[in-house]
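This week, work through this protein record:
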Amino acid sequence: MPKVKETVLEIDLEALAHNYRFLRSRLHSNTLFLAVVKAFAYGSDASKIARKLESLGVDYFAVAYVKEGVALREAGITKPILVLHPQAVNFDTLIERCLEPSIYSPKILREFLEAARRHKQKGYPIHIKFNTGLNRLGFGENDVAYIMEQIRGRNEVKVASIFSHLAASEDLNEKAYTKKQIACFDTIGKSFDATLGYPTYKHILNTSGIINFPEAQYDMVRSGIGLYGFGNDTAIDSQLRPIVSLKTVISQIHKIAPWETVGYNRAFTSPNQKVTATLPLGHADGIGRHYGNGKAYVNVHGKYAPIIGNVCMDMIMIDITGIPCQEGDEVLVFGAAPNAETFAAFAGTISYELLTGISQRVKRIFIND
Protein backbone atom coordinates (compact mmCIF):
# COMPACT_ATOMS: atom_id res chain seq x y z
CA MET A 1 0.00 0.00 0.00
CA PRO A 2 1.26 3.53 -0.73
CA LYS A 3 1.99 5.62 2.33
CA VAL A 4 -0.83 7.85 3.52
CA LYS A 5 -0.58 11.62 3.39
CA GLU A 6 -3.37 12.48 5.83
CA THR A 7 -5.40 10.87 8.58
CA VAL A 8 -7.33 7.91 7.13
CA LEU A 9 -9.24 4.87 8.27
CA GLU A 10 -8.07 2.05 6.02
CA ILE A 11 -10.69 -0.70 5.58
CA ASP A 12 -9.58 -4.12 4.35
CA LEU A 13 -12.46 -5.89 2.61
CA GLU A 14 -10.53 -9.15 2.19
CA ALA A 15 -10.06 -9.24 5.98
CA LEU A 16 -13.84 -8.82 6.27
CA ALA A 17 -14.38 -11.76 3.92
CA HIS A 18 -11.91 -13.86 5.93
CA ASN A 19 -13.73 -13.11 9.18
CA TYR A 20 -17.11 -13.93 7.68
CA ARG A 21 -15.85 -17.25 6.34
CA PHE A 22 -14.22 -18.11 9.67
CA LEU A 23 -17.42 -17.45 11.63
CA ARG A 24 -19.50 -19.24 9.00
CA SER A 25 -17.28 -22.29 9.39
CA ARG A 26 -18.42 -22.57 13.03
CA LEU A 27 -22.07 -23.00 12.00
CA HIS A 28 -24.28 -25.69 10.56
CA SER A 29 -24.75 -25.34 6.82
CA ASN A 30 -28.42 -24.39 7.19
CA THR A 31 -27.94 -21.78 9.94
CA LEU A 32 -28.71 -18.26 8.72
CA PHE A 33 -26.15 -15.51 9.28
CA LEU A 34 -27.24 -12.02 10.36
CA ALA A 35 -24.53 -9.37 10.04
CA VAL A 36 -24.74 -6.44 12.45
CA VAL A 37 -23.79 -3.23 10.61
CA LYS A 38 -25.10 -0.62 13.03
CA ALA A 39 -23.10 2.49 13.95
CA PHE A 40 -21.60 2.84 10.45
CA ALA A 41 -20.63 -0.86 10.55
CA TYR A 42 -18.77 -0.41 13.82
CA GLY A 43 -17.22 2.85 12.71
CA SER A 44 -16.16 1.80 9.21
CA ASP A 45 -18.62 2.27 6.31
CA ALA A 46 -21.99 0.52 6.56
CA SER A 47 -22.93 0.71 2.88
CA LYS A 48 -19.63 -0.62 1.59
CA ILE A 49 -19.42 -3.31 4.27
CA ALA A 50 -23.02 -4.42 3.68
CA ARG A 51 -22.54 -4.63 -0.08
CA LYS A 52 -19.46 -6.80 0.41
CA LEU A 53 -21.23 -9.06 2.91
CA GLU A 54 -24.28 -9.33 0.67
CA SER A 55 -22.01 -10.54 -2.13
CA LEU A 56 -20.53 -13.12 0.26
CA GLY A 57 -23.94 -14.57 1.03
CA VAL A 58 -25.06 -13.00 4.30
CA ASP A 59 -28.76 -13.73 4.90
CA TYR A 60 -29.84 -10.78 7.07
CA PHE A 61 -28.59 -7.44 8.30
CA ALA A 62 -29.24 -5.62 11.55
CA VAL A 63 -29.00 -1.94 12.43
CA ALA A 64 -29.92 -0.07 15.57
CA TYR A 65 -32.16 2.65 14.14
CA VAL A 66 -34.42 3.24 11.16
CA LYS A 67 -32.17 5.94 9.71
CA GLU A 68 -29.36 3.39 9.40
CA GLY A 69 -31.64 0.98 7.57
CA VAL A 70 -32.76 3.68 5.16
CA ALA A 71 -29.11 4.40 4.32
CA LEU A 72 -28.57 0.73 3.46
CA ARG A 73 -31.64 0.66 1.22
CA GLU A 74 -30.38 3.79 -0.55
CA ALA A 75 -27.05 1.99 -1.05
CA GLY A 76 -28.88 -0.80 -2.87
CA ILE A 77 -29.01 -3.44 -0.14
CA THR A 78 -31.88 -5.84 -0.83
CA LYS A 79 -31.51 -8.42 1.94
CA PRO A 80 -33.85 -8.21 4.96
CA ILE A 81 -32.83 -5.58 7.51
CA LEU A 82 -33.78 -5.95 11.17
CA VAL A 83 -34.02 -2.67 13.11
CA LEU A 84 -33.04 -3.54 16.67
CA HIS A 85 -34.25 -0.44 18.49
CA PRO A 86 -36.93 1.29 16.41
CA GLN A 87 -38.88 4.25 17.68
CA ALA A 88 -42.58 4.60 16.91
CA VAL A 89 -42.11 8.03 15.33
CA ASN A 90 -40.21 6.31 12.50
CA PHE A 91 -42.64 3.46 11.79
CA ASP A 92 -44.03 5.07 8.63
CA THR A 93 -40.54 5.35 7.15
CA LEU A 94 -39.68 1.84 8.33
CA ILE A 95 -42.64 0.36 6.46
CA GLU A 96 -42.04 2.48 3.37
CA ARG A 97 -38.44 1.23 3.15
CA CYS A 98 -39.30 -2.42 3.88
CA LEU A 99 -37.35 -2.59 7.13
CA GLU A 100 -38.25 -5.13 9.82
CA PRO A 101 -38.82 -3.94 13.39
CA SER A 102 -37.78 -5.51 16.65
CA ILE A 103 -40.90 -5.41 18.82
CA TYR A 104 -39.72 -5.23 22.40
CA SER A 105 -42.55 -3.82 24.54
CA PRO A 106 -46.36 -3.65 24.73
CA LYS A 107 -46.28 0.01 23.69
CA ILE A 108 -44.14 -0.67 20.61
CA LEU A 109 -46.31 -3.66 19.67
CA ARG A 110 -49.54 -1.65 19.85
CA GLU A 111 -48.08 1.28 17.92
CA PHE A 112 -46.62 -0.91 15.18
CA LEU A 113 -49.88 -2.80 14.74
CA GLU A 114 -51.59 0.54 14.27
CA ALA A 115 -48.97 1.69 11.76
CA ALA A 116 -49.28 -1.57 9.82
CA ARG A 117 -53.07 -1.20 9.76
CA ARG A 118 -52.77 2.40 8.58
CA HIS A 119 -50.45 1.33 5.76
CA LYS A 120 -52.80 -1.54 4.83
CA GLN A 121 -50.11 -4.16 5.34
CA LYS A 122 -50.63 -7.92 5.23
CA GLY A 123 -48.13 -10.26 6.83
CA TYR A 124 -45.53 -7.55 7.49
CA PRO A 125 -42.48 -9.26 9.10
CA ILE A 126 -41.79 -8.40 12.73
CA HIS A 127 -39.30 -9.78 15.25
CA ILE A 128 -40.23 -10.27 18.89
CA LYS A 129 -37.45 -9.45 21.36
CA PHE A 130 -37.43 -11.31 24.69
CA ASN A 131 -35.45 -10.31 27.76
CA THR A 132 -33.79 -13.41 29.23
CA GLY A 133 -31.41 -11.66 31.61
CA LEU A 134 -29.64 -8.73 29.95
CA ASN A 135 -32.42 -6.50 31.30
CA ARG A 136 -32.14 -3.92 28.57
CA LEU A 137 -34.99 -4.39 26.07
CA GLY A 138 -37.55 -7.11 25.58
CA PHE A 139 -40.72 -8.84 26.68
CA GLY A 140 -40.63 -11.15 29.65
CA GLU A 141 -41.12 -14.91 29.61
CA ASN A 142 -44.68 -14.46 30.91
CA ASP A 143 -45.65 -12.08 28.10
CA VAL A 144 -46.21 -14.76 25.44
CA ALA A 145 -49.95 -14.91 26.14
CA TYR A 146 -50.23 -11.10 25.95
CA ILE A 147 -48.41 -11.00 22.60
CA MET A 148 -50.70 -13.67 21.21
CA GLU A 149 -53.77 -11.76 22.33
CA GLN A 150 -52.56 -8.71 20.43
CA ILE A 151 -51.65 -10.43 17.15
CA ARG A 152 -54.21 -13.25 17.01
CA GLY A 153 -56.61 -12.58 14.18
CA ARG A 154 -54.55 -9.64 12.94
CA ASN A 155 -53.29 -10.25 9.42
CA GLU A 156 -51.28 -7.01 9.26
CA VAL A 157 -48.15 -8.67 10.67
CA LYS A 158 -46.38 -12.01 10.71
CA VAL A 159 -43.71 -12.96 13.24
CA ALA A 160 -40.50 -13.62 11.33
CA SER A 161 -38.39 -14.41 14.37
CA ILE A 162 -38.14 -14.36 18.12
CA PHE A 163 -34.79 -13.52 19.66
CA SER A 164 -32.88 -12.55 22.77
CA HIS A 165 -29.44 -11.22 23.67
CA LEU A 166 -26.82 -12.87 25.87
CA ALA A 167 -25.36 -10.80 28.68
CA ALA A 168 -21.91 -12.38 29.13
CA SER A 169 -21.26 -14.95 26.42
CA GLU A 170 -17.60 -13.95 26.20
CA ASP A 171 -16.98 -14.69 29.90
CA LEU A 172 -16.73 -18.40 30.63
CA ASN A 173 -16.84 -17.60 34.35
CA GLU A 174 -20.47 -16.70 33.63
CA LYS A 175 -21.16 -19.89 31.70
CA ALA A 176 -23.91 -20.96 34.09
CA TYR A 177 -25.70 -17.61 33.63
CA THR A 178 -25.46 -17.88 29.84
CA LYS A 179 -26.83 -21.42 29.90
CA LYS A 180 -29.67 -20.17 32.11
CA GLN A 181 -30.48 -17.52 29.50
CA ILE A 182 -30.42 -20.11 26.71
CA ALA A 183 -32.69 -22.45 28.71
CA CYS A 184 -35.12 -19.58 29.32
CA PHE A 185 -35.13 -18.72 25.61
CA ASP A 186 -35.68 -22.37 24.75
CA THR A 187 -38.76 -22.44 26.97
CA ILE A 188 -40.09 -19.24 25.42
CA GLY A 189 -39.52 -20.58 21.92
CA LYS A 190 -41.44 -23.78 22.53
CA SER A 191 -44.32 -21.89 24.15
CA PHE A 192 -44.37 -19.35 21.34
CA ASP A 193 -44.40 -21.94 18.57
CA ALA A 194 -47.12 -23.97 20.25
CA THR A 195 -49.36 -20.92 20.52
CA LEU A 196 -48.54 -19.12 17.26
CA GLY A 197 -49.33 -21.93 14.88
CA TYR A 198 -46.52 -21.36 12.38
CA PRO A 199 -42.70 -21.60 12.66
CA THR A 200 -40.41 -18.64 13.27
CA TYR A 201 -36.67 -18.14 13.15
CA LYS A 202 -34.99 -18.15 16.54
CA HIS A 203 -31.69 -16.48 17.39
CA ILE A 204 -29.79 -15.68 20.58
CA LEU A 205 -26.09 -16.01 19.74
CA ASN A 206 -23.81 -13.03 19.24
CA THR A 207 -20.16 -13.34 18.15
CA SER A 208 -18.96 -14.76 21.47
CA GLY A 209 -22.01 -16.99 21.58
CA ILE A 210 -21.07 -18.45 18.18
CA ILE A 211 -17.63 -19.28 19.55
CA ASN A 212 -18.58 -20.53 23.01
CA PHE A 213 -22.13 -21.89 22.71
CA PRO A 214 -22.54 -23.25 19.16
CA GLU A 215 -25.12 -25.76 20.39
CA ALA A 216 -27.56 -22.83 20.75
CA GLN A 217 -27.35 -21.52 17.21
CA TYR A 218 -31.02 -22.35 16.50
CA ASP A 219 -32.02 -21.03 13.05
CA MET A 220 -29.85 -17.92 12.87
CA VAL A 221 -26.92 -16.17 14.58
CA ARG A 222 -25.95 -12.52 14.81
CA SER A 223 -22.38 -11.31 14.49
CA GLY A 224 -21.06 -7.79 14.87
CA ILE A 225 -17.59 -7.37 16.38
CA GLY A 226 -16.36 -10.70 15.01
CA LEU A 227 -16.85 -9.52 11.44
CA TYR A 228 -14.62 -6.56 12.20
CA GLY A 229 -11.81 -8.71 13.57
CA PHE A 230 -12.34 -9.25 17.29
CA GLY A 231 -13.71 -12.28 19.11
CA ASN A 232 -13.38 -11.22 22.76
CA ASP A 233 -10.89 -14.07 23.18
CA THR A 234 -7.17 -14.02 22.41
CA ALA A 235 -7.26 -17.48 20.78
CA ILE A 236 -10.09 -16.42 18.48
CA ASP A 237 -8.57 -12.99 17.83
CA SER A 238 -5.49 -14.74 16.43
CA GLN A 239 -7.70 -16.36 13.79
CA LEU A 240 -9.53 -13.16 12.87
CA ARG A 241 -8.17 -10.13 11.04
CA PRO A 242 -8.89 -6.55 12.12
CA ILE A 243 -10.50 -4.89 9.12
CA VAL A 244 -9.58 -1.28 9.96
CA SER A 245 -6.33 0.57 10.53
CA LEU A 246 -6.24 4.18 11.68
CA LYS A 247 -3.27 5.89 10.08
CA THR A 248 -2.00 9.45 10.14
CA VAL A 249 1.15 11.46 9.43
CA ILE A 250 3.65 13.60 11.28
CA SER A 251 2.77 17.26 10.78
CA GLN A 252 5.68 18.81 12.67
CA ILE A 253 8.66 17.77 14.80
CA HIS A 254 9.84 19.76 17.85
CA LYS A 255 12.92 19.61 20.05
CA ILE A 256 11.88 20.05 23.67
CA ALA A 257 14.43 21.30 26.21
CA PRO A 258 14.52 19.94 29.79
CA TRP A 259 11.63 21.26 31.92
CA GLU A 260 9.72 22.61 28.94
CA THR A 261 6.05 21.67 28.81
CA VAL A 262 3.90 20.29 26.03
CA GLY A 263 0.25 20.95 25.25
CA TYR A 264 -2.76 22.38 27.03
CA ASN A 265 -2.55 22.92 30.77
CA ARG A 266 1.18 22.16 30.51
CA ALA A 267 0.19 18.57 31.24
CA PHE A 268 3.58 17.14 30.21
CA THR A 269 6.86 18.44 31.58
CA SER A 270 9.95 17.09 29.89
CA PRO A 271 12.46 15.66 32.40
CA ASN A 272 15.23 15.89 29.82
CA GLN A 273 15.73 16.76 26.19
CA LYS A 274 12.97 15.22 24.07
CA VAL A 275 11.89 15.13 20.44
CA THR A 276 8.14 15.28 19.85
CA ALA A 277 5.90 14.97 16.84
CA THR A 278 2.46 16.51 16.33
CA LEU A 279 -0.16 14.40 14.55
CA PRO A 280 -3.32 15.69 12.81
CA LEU A 281 -6.02 13.91 14.80
CA GLY A 282 -7.54 14.37 18.23
CA HIS A 283 -10.61 13.87 20.35
CA ALA A 284 -12.85 15.22 17.57
CA ASP A 285 -11.66 12.23 15.52
CA GLY A 286 -12.36 9.69 18.25
CA ILE A 287 -9.06 9.61 20.12
CA GLY A 288 -10.29 10.96 23.44
CA ARG A 289 -8.43 12.79 26.16
CA HIS A 290 -8.30 9.59 28.20
CA TYR A 291 -5.60 8.30 25.81
CA GLY A 292 -3.23 11.15 26.63
CA ASN A 293 -0.54 11.67 29.22
CA GLY A 294 1.37 8.49 28.48
CA LYS A 295 -1.54 6.06 28.64
CA ALA A 296 -1.45 5.07 24.98
CA TYR A 297 1.21 4.71 22.32
CA VAL A 298 1.24 4.75 18.52
CA ASN A 299 3.50 2.96 16.04
CA VAL A 300 6.17 4.98 14.22
CA HIS A 301 8.26 2.83 11.88
CA GLY A 302 7.77 -0.19 14.13
CA LYS A 303 8.70 1.71 17.30
CA TYR A 304 6.22 2.61 20.02
CA ALA A 305 5.82 6.33 20.67
CA PRO A 306 3.72 7.36 23.69
CA ILE A 307 1.09 10.08 23.50
CA ILE A 308 2.23 12.89 25.78
CA GLY A 309 0.28 15.77 27.27
CA ASN A 310 -3.44 16.27 26.84
CA VAL A 311 -5.07 15.13 23.62
CA CYS A 312 -6.31 18.22 21.74
CA MET A 313 -9.45 18.48 19.63
CA ASP A 314 -7.54 18.11 16.36
CA MET A 315 -4.00 17.11 17.38
CA ILE A 316 -1.98 14.81 19.58
CA MET A 317 1.67 15.00 20.48
CA ILE A 318 3.90 11.94 20.74
CA ASP A 319 7.39 11.31 22.07
CA ILE A 320 9.63 10.23 19.18
CA THR A 321 12.93 10.57 21.02
CA GLY A 322 15.33 8.04 19.52
CA ILE A 323 13.00 7.11 16.64
CA PRO A 324 14.40 8.08 13.21
CA CYS A 325 11.56 9.81 11.36
CA GLN A 326 10.67 13.04 9.64
CA GLU A 327 7.72 15.30 8.92
CA GLY A 328 5.29 13.62 6.53
CA ASP A 329 6.09 10.09 7.72
CA GLU A 330 3.24 7.64 8.28
CA VAL A 331 2.09 6.75 11.81
CA LEU A 332 -0.10 3.79 12.72
CA VAL A 333 -2.48 4.66 15.55
CA PHE A 334 -4.05 1.19 15.63
CA GLY A 335 -4.42 -1.67 13.19
CA ALA A 336 -2.01 -4.59 13.38
CA ALA A 337 0.18 -3.44 16.28
CA PRO A 338 -1.27 -2.09 18.41
CA ASN A 339 -4.67 -3.43 17.39
CA ALA A 340 -7.89 -1.70 18.39
CA GLU A 341 -8.44 -3.94 21.42
CA THR A 342 -4.94 -3.22 22.75
CA PHE A 343 -5.22 0.50 22.06
CA ALA A 344 -8.63 0.71 23.73
CA ALA A 345 -7.30 -1.12 26.79
CA PHE A 346 -4.75 1.66 27.33
CA ALA A 347 -7.66 3.86 28.38
CA GLY A 348 -9.65 1.18 30.18
CA THR A 349 -12.24 0.76 27.44
CA ILE A 350 -13.08 -1.77 24.71
CA SER A 351 -12.62 -2.04 20.96
CA TYR A 352 -16.36 -1.47 20.38
CA GLU A 353 -16.18 2.04 21.83
CA LEU A 354 -12.95 2.93 20.07
CA LEU A 355 -14.06 1.69 16.64
CA THR A 356 -17.53 3.19 16.69
CA GLY A 357 -16.16 6.49 17.97
CA ILE A 358 -13.94 7.24 14.96
CA SER A 359 -15.33 10.46 13.56
CA GLN A 360 -17.00 10.60 10.18
CA ARG A 361 -14.63 13.42 9.26
CA VAL A 362 -11.82 10.86 9.05
CA LYS A 363 -11.44 9.81 5.41
CA ARG A 364 -12.28 6.14 4.69
CA ILE A 365 -10.24 4.27 2.11
CA PHE A 366 -10.69 0.67 0.99
CA ILE A 367 -8.14 -1.98 0.13
CA ASN A 368 -8.39 -5.52 -1.28
CA ASP A 369 -11.84 -4.86 -2.73
Observations:
- The chain is about 30% helix and 25% strand.
- Residues 244-367 form a domain with the Lyase, Ornithine Decarboxylase; Chain A, domain 1 fold (CATH 2.40.37.10).
- Residues 9 and 150 are 47 Å apart (CA to CA).
